[in-house]
Amino acid sequence: MQGGRLPGTDTRDRIVLHVDMDCFYASCERRREPSLRGEPVVVGMGYAPGETTGAVATASYEARAHGVESAQAISQALELLGRAATADPDAEPVGYYRPVDMAFYESVSESVQEILTAVADTVRKVSIDEAYLDVTEQRHWSDVESFASNLKARIRKEVGVPASIGVAPNMATAKVASDADKPDGLVVVRPDAVESFLAPLPVESLHGVGPVTASTLKEMDIETVADLTDHPRTAIVDQFGSRGADIYDQAHGIDERAVEPVGNPKSLSNESAFAEPTTDRTTVAKRLSALTEQVTERATNRDVQYKTIGIKVVTPPFDIHTRERSLSGPIDDPELVGSIVTDLSTEFEGEPIRKLGVRLSNLSFDAAEQSSLDQFNDETDSKDQRQGKRGGTRQSSLFEFC
Predict the structure, then answer these.
(1) Could you list the active site residues?
(2) What are the tens digits of pLDDT across the range 196-207?
C-alpha cells in the first residue's frame, strides 16, 4: 500500500491537501483577458461598468497593495484605485474593474474540480474556489510534495488559473498551510512538523479566530499559536466554550475530521488534456474511448445509472464547448455511451483540441431494475437542436463536474 497509514492507526498520519484558488474571480477574468495579468483587477458584486455602486467581491494582490479589499464599497475602491478607462493616462495607480460573472466562474471551477476528482479518490468541495483532498491511500509523504507540485502545474496549464496548496495530516492544518505562502504557493507540513509550523503563526491563522476572538485572546496575553498552546486547555474552554476546545485542538495540530464528499455527486466525469492541441481524428477518438471506459466503469462500480451523456471539448486558448444528449430513462450501458460520445464529437472534426471530457449526469442511485433499452428513444437536447451540427451558435452550456 502506498499510503502513509494502516487501518486503525493515528489519523495524524493522513495526507490531506487543501487546494485554494488564488483571487479566483480575478484569476478567471485574467484567463478571459490575458492582458490583465500583472495588473490590479477588481471584481465587483452589483457593479456595472462605468458605475460607482456595488461592493468588491475580489481584489487581486496588485489591487490589494493599494488598499482595495473584499466587501469594500466600489466607490471607496475607486478613490484608492482609479478606473483605467476613465483615469488620467498619466495617473497612478490605475485599476481594471469587472462585474461578477458567476456562470463563467462556475465553468472554470468545474474544470478544476474535474482535475481534483481525477487525481484523488476522496474530494470534498467546500466552495467554488476551494476543496480538500485525501490521498492517504494513493500517496506517501516521500512523494507528496512532487504530487502537489504537479497538481498545481496541471491546473495552471489545463485551466489557466493559479492555485495555492497546503499539505498536512489533517484538514485544519492543511488550510493554514495553503494560506501560508500565497499566491501560487505550496507548503507541505509533515506529521512531525505540525506543531513547530503552527507555533510562530498569529493566532488569527486558526479557523474560527476572527477579530473579536483575537482581541479577547490578546487580553489573555495570547497573540501567537505558541502562546495559545502554553495556556491550560480549561482556560480556553472556560472563555469560549466548545469553540475554544476546537481552537485549542487546532493549535496542537489536532483535527479528527475525515475528508468526506458532501452528498451524492450530480455527475460523473473524466477529463484529459493533450500535451499540444491536436486535430488528428484518430488521436481524439482513442482519447474519447479511454475516457468513456473510465467514466462508465466508475458508474458501474458505484451501481449508478445515468440518463444524460455529454462531452466537453476545450479549444485554444481555453474555449469550453459542451454537448450532451438525454435518454428517456436511466441506464448503465457503456457501449451506448461510446456511440453517443462518438456522435457528439463529430461536430469538432478538424478543429484543434487541447482537452476532452466525457460526462454522465442525471444520475440515479436507486436500486431499481434497469429499464430495457428497447423503451428508449434518444432525445436530442434542445441545445443540440438549436445549434445543429455546424451552422449553429457555438456558445457553450454549463454543467457541473463532481
Answers:
(1) 130
(2) 999 999 999 998
